[in-house]
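We were asked to recover a plausible sequence for a given structure. The inputs and outputs are reproduced exactly as logged, with field labels preserved.

PROBLEM: sequence recovery
POSITIONS: 479
GIVEN STRUCTURE:
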């Protein structure tokens, strides 16, 4: 590891999202979001969990900032709850100044401690009213106009923030919200799960609206707010892929196609102004037209990268299903030889494989012309962690420590060996929190949250490992 380093000004810290940590769902003038509604429906989340209380961070600004400080973090990524700022969400609806005051206090205390805020405008919690009015993401023009006005209110209210993220993981909003129906608003073709929805096309429409809204907010920011040092971008999730049988060109091709269906669906429009060829080929005119993407081209100041895992990919020999969102392929954790990609975690979709992080960084760097990259999420759950009983056990998260060490090292390697331009790293997550459909059973935090005892926080071993690993690399820097 001694030959690796990170620059002295490398930003690092932890990430969270509003609905996952804030709680106080009906306090301070906040309006309901689609996640309040969805999580209240029977059977949608594990044990019927909701974010009504979550980590109670709405009432704990001072202690959360103190926690970040105790971890020596130089950056913190959080998201703003749209319905706290504009409870009904729309461009002619009233602003809730109590909501603005809450985020202003948070930003002020971060800056006082020398912690750089990275602020996400939208981490899935759409105001419920916009869903009721015009089906939210399914109405491109209305959604883009309302999002642009919400973004304007945030840019005006928080001029100290210089690092903005428009959308978190549009793939999740689109596919999980409108194709599989596993996330809010839970629309899909399966009538046993949802009274409405069309899994063959709605996710493609939702994805398109997110791209247009992203572009409008970026242009607004650049025109009126960015000044010399403001930056704005979109955060995309992406897993690395390896062919199931590396000797079969069809598996090699399918592995690349999976990256395009997951990542390039959004990144190609942002960098090139068009959808990937492979998607157009399979989806035809169910995918909205490329000419509407003209305004999306060139709208990233940085690439926000969320990364967790890796899959083996095997091509399918049959025609694609109409509701397929993967690219007509299977994703697996074992390859043809029976090698397993990585150890089990609490999340069925997540297996640690740090080499995949290095490879994906290089892939993104090459395909998108050497962009500035901020890793805006990276982390893991730990199998059966929630079953741990004593504080000693609960804070001893060996697998997560190993995960952060190996992933951060893999990132440093991509920077040294392939000159990938990573400027910052935010671990997911500052603390255990509402893990969406998995409720509170799956934990991703470097801090244990005791939901049974007043949401008390207990630092886990991994909270130190992130900082120690990064600072050791920064000390190696010759700059
Ligand atoms: C990300 N999947 O979500 C989100 O940005 C976080 O809010 C979340 O807590 C974190 O990762 C851990 O899950 C994902 O099913 C959720 O593939 C699900 C998937 C991927 C990312």
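RECOVERED SEQUENCE:
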């Amino acid at each position: 590891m001694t030959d690796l380093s990170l620059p002295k000004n490398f930003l690092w810290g932890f990430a969270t999202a509003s609905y996952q940590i804030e709680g106080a769902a009906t306090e301070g003038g906040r309006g309901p979001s689609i996640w309040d509604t969805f999580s209240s429906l029977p059977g949608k989340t594990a044990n019927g969990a909701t974010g009504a209380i979550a980590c109670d961070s709405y009432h704990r600004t001072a202690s959360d900032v103190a926690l970040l400080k105790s971890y020596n973090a130089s950056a913190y990524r959080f998201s703003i709850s749209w319905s706290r700022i504009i409870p009904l969400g729309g461009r002619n609806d009233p602003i809730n100044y109590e909501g603005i005051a809450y985020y202003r206090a948070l930003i002020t205390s971060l800056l006082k401690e020398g912690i750089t805020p990275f602020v996400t405008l939208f981490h899935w919690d759409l105001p419920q009213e916009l869903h009721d009015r015009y089906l939210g993401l399914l109405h491109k023009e209305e959604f883009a106009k309302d999002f642009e006005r919400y973004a304007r209110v945030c840019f005006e209210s928080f001029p100290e923030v210089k690092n903005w993220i428009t959308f978190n993981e549009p793939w999740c909003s689109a596919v999980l919200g409108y194709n599989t129906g596993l996330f809010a608003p839970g629309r899909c073709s399966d009538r046993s799960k949802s009274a409405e929805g069309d899994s063959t096309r709605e996710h493609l429409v939702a994805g398109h609206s997110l791209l247009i809204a992203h572009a409008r907010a970026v242009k607004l920011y650049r025109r009126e707010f960015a000044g010399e040092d403001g930056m704005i971008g979109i955060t995309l999730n992406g897993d690395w892929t390896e062919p199931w049988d590396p000797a079969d060109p069809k598996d090699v091709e399918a592995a690349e196609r999976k990256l395009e269906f997951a990542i390039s669906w959004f990144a190609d429009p942002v960098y090139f102004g068009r959808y990937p060829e492979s998607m157009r080929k399979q989806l035809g005119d169910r995918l909205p037209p490329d000419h509407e993407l003209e305004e999306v081209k060139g709208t990233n100041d940085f690439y926000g990268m969320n990364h967790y895992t890796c899959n083996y990919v095997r091509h399918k020999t049959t025609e694609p299903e109409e509701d397929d969102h993967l690219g007509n392929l299977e994703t697996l954790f074992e390859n043809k030889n029976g090698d397993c990609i990585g150890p089990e975690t609490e999340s069925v979709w997540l297996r640690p494989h740090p080499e995949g992080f290095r490879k994906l960084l290089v892939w993104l760097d090459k395909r998108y012309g050497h962009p500035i990259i901020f890793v805006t999420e990276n982390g893991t759950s730990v199998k059966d962690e929630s079953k741990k009983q004593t504080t000693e056990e609960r804070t001893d998260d060996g697998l997560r420590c190993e995960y952060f060490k190996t992933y951060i090292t893999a990132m440093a390697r991509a920077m040294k060996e392939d000159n990938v331009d990573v400027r910052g790293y935010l671990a997911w997550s500052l603390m255990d929190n509402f893990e969406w459909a998995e409720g509170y059973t799956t934990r991703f935090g470097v801090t244990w949250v005791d939901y049974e005892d007043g949401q008390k926080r207990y630092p886990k071993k991994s909270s130190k490992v992130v900082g120690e690993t990064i600072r050791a690399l920064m000390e190696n820097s010759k700059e």
